[in-house]
Amino acid sequence: MQNITVVGAGYVGLANSFLIGITNGVTLYDISQDKINQLQQGKSPITDEYIAKYIDQVQVTYTTNDAEAYTDADVIFVAVDTNYDEERGKFNLDSVNNVLHDIARYASDNTIIVIKSTVPIGFTDEKKAEYPQFRFIFSPEFLREGHALYDNLYPDRIVIGGADSCDLASVQTIGQLLSENILSEDVPIVYVSNREAEVVKLFANTYLAMRVSFVNELDTYCQSQNMETAHVLDAIGYDKRIGRDYWNPSFGYGGYCLPKDTKQLDSEYVSHNIPQNLVSNIVKSNETRKQFIADKIIELVNYDKDAVIGIYRVIAKKGINNFRSSAVLDIAQILVDLEYQVLIYEPYATAPINGINIDNDFASFEQKSAVIVANRIEEMIKNNPKVYSTDIYNMD
């Protein structure tokens, strides 16, 4: 019986601790006492249907005591935030480095440390050199916020790094832990080097961002030329080489992973002086799209700075409860910076967001708004004549 610890009670940490905890005892450690209290009470601190469903079915204990979490652990999964630092032009790795420093205080030699946090290429091997007493593996996550545990239960593939620098038993142990409770059949487990696994993560998310950007630029063209975006996308999507995934126009890609991962990959090219055009322009395309949407909204209110522009929901993605890297919120900020009146309707908000006023009462919000801007159409605003959206699949 192995002692397994997962660090971080966010989407990645919860999804992995619950996946493994179906058949194994797991200790989930987080510095947030509030999160740990909620979990101990059988409540999920994040919005995720499957995490809420499994919370009473898994063998997971919760703690804020780092010594308790690390001292006897055989395997430690590190799943803490690595936000992109705009000033430094790369990931902020303070959270991961602090965790590894604390692990080194308590964990035994030969403990397997699995990095689940998204990191720069080469980071895991650098830590292996810094902490030679541990066995380091990088295993990327391919989950969606709001569907994290579902995506781990039904994965397309499992990628395990360390195949070139860690003993075979260690990488196979992690492959077993991450695959023994999945519900999909014939899921490939891909064993690669740590650097290759880090590359897989960044390029996979950048490809998805490219899909979103392509559809958004197509929509920008169609809007500008008075064409029906839905007709064009529908015809293109029948090509089986292209398909229809990530095929609904939006105000820009947002959420926790795509914005930061595309920027980090761009910085990898720059730091190694590797020629490229596509990756940097995916990042630029997202900013161009947000500015285009802001300009369209300004046209809709006839450049009237006294008209109230209502923003319907600023959550980063449908089905989640946070605003981090929200494309809609970025557009709202553009409008505020241009001195337009902006009001946000967001049930999850309890205070002004980035200094922008909120209204939790939809009837009041609707009455005050000259136009209602919505990244995605929901039942509450369907067929509302005030609504402006690029959503083409949820209109009816």
- With helices defined by DSSP (H or I, 4 residues minimum), what is the helix count? 14
Question: Which ranges are low-confidence, i.e. pLDDT below 50, for 5 or more consecutive residues?
Answer: none
* Overall 3D form: globular
What is the tally of beta strands? 14
Provide a concise account of the structure shown.
This protein is of the alpha/beta class. The protein has 14 helices and 14 strands. The strands form 4 sheets. The chain has a 6-stranded parallel beta sheet with strand order 3-2-1-4-7-8, with helices on both faces.
Characterise the protein shown here.
With 396 residues, this protein is α/β, with parallel strands linked by helices. Helix content is 41%, strand content 13%. It contains 14 helices and 14 strands. The protein has helices at residues 11-21, 33-40, 49-54, 66-70, 94-106, 123-130, 148-153, 168-179, 194-224, 229-237, 258-271, 278-300, 327-337, 362-368; strands spanning 4-7, 26-29, 60-63, 75-78, 84-85, 90-91, 112-115, 135-138, 158-160, 189-191, 308-312, 341-345, 371-374, 387-388. The strands form four sheets. A six-stranded parallel sheet has the order 3-2-1-4-7-8, sandwiched between helices. Strands 12-11-13-14 form a four-stranded parallel sheet, with helices on both faces. A two-stranded antiparallel sheet has the order 5-6. It is globular, with a radius of gyration of 22 Å. The relative contact order is 0.09.
